[in-house]
Design goal:
By secondary structure, this protein is an alpha/beta fold. It has a domain at 99-166. The chain has helices at 48-55, 78-85, 95-98, 105-115, 124-134, 151-163, 181-198, 209-215, 233-238, 243-250, 253-257; strands at residues 6-17, 20-32, 37-41, 63-68, 71-72, 88-92, 169-173, 201-205, 218-223, 226-232. The protein has a 6-stranded mixed beta sheet, sandwiched between helices. The radius of gyration is 18 Å and the shape is globular. Bound molecules: adenosine-5'-triphosphate and magnesium ion. Magnesium ion binds next to helix 1. Magnesium ion binds at residues 48-49.
Length: 258
């Protein structure tokens, strides 16, 4: 049997706050298969974004292991880590904060193609146009500044940037949370299309269990840095077994009506 695309075991991250030490992430283990979506849900402060930052190696853990694409991801450094980063991309809630708002759309998409040596200078404009079309935008958006386009368009640009390097895993932290309901639905459809066609796996962080139920294969529900419950997304959202899962469902009006 082949090993999972991403496998996390015993992951732990401590933060010091006001003289006390708290475990933002406390001995967490999970895995994601190629082409699969694992959602992380849970209340504010339960450690979801810390998991995202650990998996992306934006922060280093105090304990635990991360295997990615069959390698000890925590042991990588320098050029090896930079090259693997092409296979592991991210989309955050607010692309205005993630990108220079004055940069053009073309610039935001040109960066990964240039940095990872994916296309020559001459070929990059065509590649950028193709990426824009792939995420449902028109190439005439290329010269516009990030701050001039709509929130939904910006999130499509963020997705285009994430797929530019042909990743096997994308970490999405509340990536659709700031969008209105109809735009959110369109972006979720786009993500599902991309996953079907490119076999991309998603680590999909969301506090919205309706969204989790719509997009994820499996879900892990977090509580105070630990996994309280994990399983098939629909099964867990429809009939949570943990107290925190039941509280989250009770707090999601759209689900209660269904
Ligand atoms: N850089 C940091 N320094 C100190 N404490 C931190 C830091 N980052 C996170 N924490 C703490 O770690 C815990 C987990 O935070 P995290 O951001 O991972 O939660 P979250 O589940 O993403 O919450 P939200 O749903 O509000 O985004 C919280 O108690 C938070 O205050
Ligand atoms: Mg968060």
């Amino acid at each position: 049997m082949s090993s999972p695309l991403l496998s996390v075991s015993g992951l732990t991250k401590w933060y010091r706050r006001g003289g006390k030490t708290i475990a933002a992430v406390d001995n967490v283990s999970f895995h994601i298969e190629t082409g699969e979506t694992l959602a992380l849900a849970g209340p504010s402060g339960s450690g979801k974004s810390t998991i995202a930052r650990l998996v992306l190696r934006l922060v280093e853990p105090d304990a635990g292991r991360i295997q990615f694409d069959g390698e000890d991801f925590l042991a990588l450094g320098g050029a090896a880590l930079r090259s693997r980063r092409a296979r592991l991309q991210m989309v955050f809630q607010d692309p205005l904060a993630a990108f220079n708002p004055r940069a053009t759309v073309a610039r935001v998409l040109d960066d990964p193609l240039r940095i990872h040596g994916i296309a020559s200078r001459l070929k990059r404009p065509r590649r950028i146009a193709a990426l824009l079309e792939r995420v449902g935008l028109t190439p005439d958006l290329a010269p516009r500044a990030i701050h001039e386009i709509s929130g939904g368009q910006r999130q499509r640009v963020a997705i285009a940037r994430a797929i530019a390097t042909k990743p096997s895993l994308i970490v999405l932290d509340e990536a659709v949370s700031a969008l209105d309901v109809s735009v959110r639905g369109q972006i979720l459809h786009l993500l599902l299309d991309l996953q079907r066609e490119e076999r991309i796996a998603y680590l999909f962080i969301s506090h919205d269990l309706g969204v989790v139920r719509a997009i994820a294969h499996r879900v892990a529900i977090f509580d105070a840095g630990r996994i309280a419950e994990t399983g098939d997304a629909r099964t867990v959202v429809d009939a949570p077994q943990s107290a925190i899962g039941q509280a989250l469902v009770a707090a999601t009006p759209r689900l209660n009506r269904a």
